[in-house]
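The protein record quoted in full:

***
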Amino acid sequence: MREPLLLPLAALATGIALAQISPFSLRDSLIGAIALLFLAILATVKARPALARTVTLLTLAAAGILLDTLHRPGSAPEIDASSQEIVTLSGCIVGPPVSLVDREQFLLELDPGAIARVSLTLRPDDTAPALHYGQRIEIDARVRKPRNFGNPGAFDYVRYLQRRHVYWTASAPSGTPITTLPGRCGNRLSAFIFDLRQSALARIEQLYNGDAYATGMMEAILIGESSRLEKVWTEHFRRTGTYHALVISGLHVTVLAGVLLFLLRLMMLNELAALVIAAIAAWVYAAVSGWSAPVVRAAGGFTLYLMARFFFRRGRILNLLAAIGIVYLATDPGQLFDASFQLSFFAVAAIGALAVPILDHTSGDYRDVALDLDDAGRDVRMPPKAAAVRVELRLLAETAALWTPIRKRIWLAAVSGVLRLLLWLYEMAVVSAVIQVALALPMALYFHRLSVTGISANLIIVPALSAVVPLGFAAIFTGSTALAAVAHWLLRLSEAVARWHVNFEPTIRIPDPPVWLGIALVAALVATAIALRSGSRWRWPAIAATLAVFAVLFAHPFAPDLQPRTLELTAIDVGQGDSLLLALPDGRTMLVDTGGILSFGRTRPRMDIGEDVVSPYLWTRGLRRVDVIAITHAHEDHIGGLAALLENFRPAELWTGATPQTDRWRVLEQRARELGIRVRRRHAGEHEGPIEILSPAVDYESGDAARNDDSLAMRITFGLHTLLLTGDMEKDTEYRLVQDNALHRTTVLKVAHHGSRTSSTEEFLSAVQPSFALISAGFENSFRHPHPDVLGRLEQHHTSVLRTDRQGLITIRSDGRHLTVITNSN
């Protein structure tokens, strides 16, 4: 076998995956690994090679189970305080502080391996405190434990932080004093690395002074510092599948190591010394860029390549990749389930297993055709087809020289250059296409995107941004504004290319594929790789099968996960906000409100609830479209995710009640019309199938700013059951509905205004007599919703209370006679 490490890697990864599916005790996994190791040794001693290989692979699988068990996180450390209490934190700053527009952030290690991420609010006239790595400080702050959104398929934010030993987030208001404690902490090497990092960031700010785009983008590309990166700047790269070239990745290490090797060889340094220096530089860069996983993997791969060259061994890309994978999973088994690890691993595997064989079968014989075209003696050492092409090219150059005043040597150089460019473009296109297909499954699962224009966009963007890396670092080291300007121009060129390609990129998002389809795509890719590498006559059928499965994944011709002839109301956990999925018995779907984060005039939050929370849940349900998005009123915690959801799900209609013509709302409404979405203003007395509009009244006038009583309230009736959706309406609207006798007994009440005491009056609850009360509120929110008075009144009416802050996603289904309640905490 040409890549003997592939099977051991597969066995180790299988064991780690099995440990996640069915957790083993430390005792059982240790006994199993030792027993299998003994059997493997015994089979080797008894000269039974086939049995020895099989048992060795089983031993590696058992080792994977053992490693996962050993790395299983223990119980998280605790701080005896609620989220509303102010506590005094003292510890060591273990990460470089980051100054944002409205806050200063830093990592504070309270005890070894127990870190809090502290945010200090800054007013416009505040000066950020002078903090640095290794400083011991004391600060008063409110501490909270991170919490995931309670929806199926939600990003495991808690696990993400815990892998970095971050167990709390802490916030302190502007003006909070920070006391510097005596003594130093941390270590000298980390201090040196962070000083290098801060110096590089300071030089970038100096080179691009006043240009927020250039500063933020260059800091992200060169150093991996994304705190100043605005999401809108990278949207074109995301949509065209070229974002990988923008973020810190193994490509950066490859480019920097290649440039450094070239310069060292120009200095007449021997190859081994040059490789050692380049490897050391790769690890220094990994440290300065924040030990990001792709860079660490690339630095490790380069080190293994150096070792192979030292022992005069030919490096094989898949074997090298397998060695990196084994080392990485042995030290951190959890990386197997990390999106970054999977994407970078599969991308390199696709190049080695698919792209290289395809290129060998197509352009492989012609790679050296353009070398020394005027040397006919090289022809005899080339394949006949390549030699024939060289003869034709020389004849072409001779003919052109006869008909023009340009010499033959110049024509030969021109023909050679054009041929090399064409070959390079072809090979880049093949590699890009192969990566797009090979990464289709993880891209659909993690990002719900598949790019069509990425194949051509990558041909320009990857080389341009690859050139930005050495030019940017040269500008940092020399302080050259000219080099910085060239790097900035290449960055702008890349952004323009991505923006142009967006015009041709279908705005299609991919729901979660069925499990069987994912297995089929993986199987087809493996079969194609085997057929290509073995030269089997089945390679073309295997390629056709892979492309067919890829097309099915892209088209997603599957019905959404909705029960027929059933009324469903699902409260999506969006924190302190509202977003409800309503599925009607006739199959139509409606999203009522889109969640959002209240910012109170500060910088808009970087998390987009519509893109990052609501959309992923809808995609787990297999939805590509919703028929209607209804906005109850224009407060940010109800419309914050609207822009993303309009783009992602293209509803036929956008329903609104009384909406003030603020700039924010006008932009959203205009975007809906640009997308061809019909905007409908609804008011009391209107009916739409089983939906009856209860408010706002026909004569209701909205003010200059959004108000809770603007809320669009709806009643949905199916068989014996009634749902009442109230938005954030307050007591004035409730009194009007009571006085107009517009209310009657309700099965499920979506409690208004997240359970605030400004709503859910006694008169209102007496009129609707709900069996179930659904409250959408944020966990330990600062408004202290739901209010105890409201909970007390609901209890007096013998109403069962369902809360997203405690139970996560809540789904209520009715077949007209029977009601089913399902919570994410079940």
About this structure: Residues 215-337+455-502 form one domain. Residues 393 and 415 are 7 Å apart (CA to CA). The two ends are 49 Å apart (CA to CA). The chain has five domains: 6-70, 86-186, 215-337+455-502, 365-428, 567-823.
